[in-house]
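Researcher: We are triaging several targets before committing to wet-lab work. For this one, the compound of interest is 2-acetamido-2-deoxy-beta-D-glucopyranose. I'm pasting the protein sequence and the ligand SMILES. What I need is the predicted three-dimensional arrangement of the protein with the ligand bound, expressed as structure tokens, so it can go straight into our comparison scripts without reformatting.
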Amino acid sequence: MAFLGSLLALLTSTSLLGGAVQAASVIVPGAAWTDTSGNVIQAHGAGILKVGSTFYMHGEDKTHNSGLFRAVTCYSSSDLVNWSRQNDALTPIANTPISTANIVERPKVIFNQRNSEYVMWFHSDSSNYGAAQVGVATAKSPCGPYSYKASWRPLGAESRDMGLFQDDDSVQTAYVLYASDNNQNFKITRLDANYYNVTTQVAVIPSSTIESPGIYKRNGVYWLFGSMTTGWNPNPNKYWRSNALSGTWSSSSDIAPQATRTYFSQHTYTLPLGSNGVYMGDRWRPQQLGGSRYIWLPMSYSSGSPQLVWADVWSINVGAGTYTVHTGTTYEAENGSRGGASTLMDNSGFSGGRGIGYLGNGGTVTINNVQGLGRDQWVSLYYAVGDSTWRNVTVSVNGGGNVLVDQPNTGSGNTILSVPVKLNLRNGANTLVFGGGQSNYAGDLDKIIVYTQA
Ligand SMILES: *[C@@H]1O[C@H](CO)[C@@H](O)[C@H](O)[C@H]1NC(C)=O
Ligand SMILES: *[C@@H]1O[C@H](CO)[C@@H](O)[C@H](O)[C@H]1NC(C)=O
Ligand SMILES: *[C@@H]1O[C@H](CO)[C@@H](O)[C@H](O)[C@H]1NC(C)=O
Ligand SMILES: *[C@@H]1O[C@H](CO)[C@@H](O)[C@H](O)[C@H]1NC(C)=O
């Protein structure tokens, strides 16, 4: 039975991927994503560039856990899951605005067909964000290395968080999207034919305090995505809609249930793929910036406007432009057996209205009879942490060592988020213990979902 189950799972995933063989084939938001060398991917504040059938991802290297400039990385992939790190696209240059004492954020690259050249725009700033400039660098290949040209204030006004948009007209007119005037006014300004400089401001969204912007064009409609300004902390990200870049832009609306604060993420880029695009966001961890994670999710327009589709584990068929949100088996925490000081708690936010609190500091919950397939599997822990700081929870499988899983705060005690952990489950029944061997309190546990994928 279990063997048949795994055979079916393999067949299913193979057909989803159009013949590709197993390995990392799923997107797991919030997990530590690794590249083909096994290193944690450093591509924060990223953008995606597609050249032929290859995706290139340019992002910030935060290995040094600092906001200061270390490198703009470049990764390549044909499936958006299996990423190979290439040479760094842009590296610091002493005594310039892109030295290691300065800030380079949100790199975005577009291809200029007129010059057959890749052009990178980024937020170029001093360490206290006082310079508030854009920077530009160019290269003849997607990963460069890029030659730095200049940093300056577009049309003389401040520019902080920014994005780029390349339209689909015959000359591929491009625009820089940026938070200006002390982040109060959001501006859309046209680039010149080389994409080296700005020419004309085409729109201002006043008093809008937008960060991490990007525009996704769908069926002729422009959807602007961005966050509000709460520093590294998450907030409910928004969309604005317009039939023309010059406006009129709609007022803002949430792209995800407000309480989730965009599933603890900040938009960085919306990838045009399939009929709805893919949301790409950062789950920042300011105390440990290099450990910030990526939240990529499918989008739905079934309500007429864009909404994120939460998915613990999902796959994209890049060729067909379709996605599959995988399903798993749910085990409610309140069904487990409690140990120590843990408590059964009523919580309207929890599935079944109940969960287990006071885990850690001696409090545990044991979930028995968790069915496994004799290999690594993703397991999502649904929990709540009402604090302003993160917690963590230990998991032990069949008496083995504790695995520590970070739990970002969820904004309130009855807002639920999930975090993934890859566990090696034996074939058949497994016993999972949560909260053992930790002297701090874990989040309140609602349920776990066990997936067949790894
Ligand atoms: C991942 O990409 C590398 C480099 O392109 C390739 O050698 C490898 O076969 C790929 N693995 C999978 C599972 O697609
Ligand atoms: C951009 O254009 C403005 C106006 O022509 C000019 O003053 C400025 O030097 C240009 N900046 C760059 C980096 O070329
Ligand atoms: C919870 O326990 C009940 C009774 O043992 C069982 O029927 C049910 O399947 C369990 N559900 C989950 C989701 O754990
Ligand atoms: C686990 O979380 C607690 C806060 O609840 C923190 O003090 C501790 O450093 C965390 N442990 C690790 C290893 O991150």
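Researcher: Any quick observations?
Model: The two ends are 20 Å apart (CA to CA).
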